[in-house]
Amino acid sequence: MRAEFLLSSLLATAVLLVNTASAASLEGEWYKVAQMYNRGYRDLNASDPCDATQLEYACVNNAPTRCVNSRWDVANADVGCQLSDKTCLATVQLFQSAGTVGEGNGALQTACVFTDVYGRTLERLGIVGGLYGED
Fold first, then answer.
1. pTM score, whole prediction
2. pLDDT given at position 134
């Protein structure tokens, strides 16, 4: 799957899921979106083009990597995942501002996380499929 199609499809799906979610299920919906991003990250290569207006950070080679000049900047990627036995994943950061919780892609971030903690969060929210939504 081409990276450009993947990223635009993920963004459109994320907006749809979050816009139709109730406040009580918003965190769970964001984690479902994160699962989709995690699946997409597995297919990304350092040589794939990127568009920072669509997705500024992604996991490339198990490292949070920034899109710079339409390329993944792997030379300056955070190698903390490899050094700490963590996995680079899309995670959810819910933040409140003037009574709202996140907007668009603002509630997702790319970070190094312990997979067991991430998995327990998914279980607590009743989300099936594991880290990638496929298990």
1. 0.73
2. 86
Contact status, residue 102 vs residue 94, Cβ threshold 8 Å: yes
Whole-number Å distance between alpha carbons of 60 and 16: 26
The alpha carbon of residue 29 and the mean position of all alpha carbons in its chain are separated, in whole angstroms, by 12
Q: Cα separations (Å) of 29 from 7, 33, 35, 71, 122?
A: 18, 6, 10, 29, 11
CA distances from 14 to 1, 17, 72, 112, 115 (A): 18, 5, 22, 21, 22
Nearest CA to 89 out of 12, 48, 30 is that of 30
Q: Which of 52, 60, 55, 56 is nearest to 77 (CA)?
A: 60
Amino acid at 32: K
101: left (phi over 0), alpha (psi -120 to 50) or beta: beta
SS3 content of the chain, % helix, strand, coil (to 5): 45, 20, 35
pLDDT for 71 equals 95
